[in-house]
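Feature request, filed as a ticket because there's no other form

It would be nice if the structure record came with a short human-readable summary line next to the tokens. Right now we just get the raw output. Example of a typical job, pasted below so the devs can see what we mean:
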Amino acid sequence: MELEELKQNLKKMIVEECEKEDDIAWEDILDDELLFGSESRIALDSLDALQLSLVLKKQFAIKVEGSKESRKHLTTINSIAQLIAENS
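Raw output as currently delivered:
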């Protein structure tokens, strides 16, 4: 899968799995935009992080632990795509 296609799929997955359809269109998510926190337009929370971790495990066989080190991989679309690329 091409990198741009992967990023597009990740954006769609986040919007659908974290039920953000009413908040933001996947096309509006920037590759280097923060996904979590009060400064984020997407405003994912800890439950969204858990959901995202489960989907990444199911679709890409990537295990994301609850540690701070592991969570840093979920900060942006770019960081998630890099994690997938490194583990595939």
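Something like this underneath would help us a lot:
The first helix runs from residue 3 to 17.
The chain has four helices and no strands.
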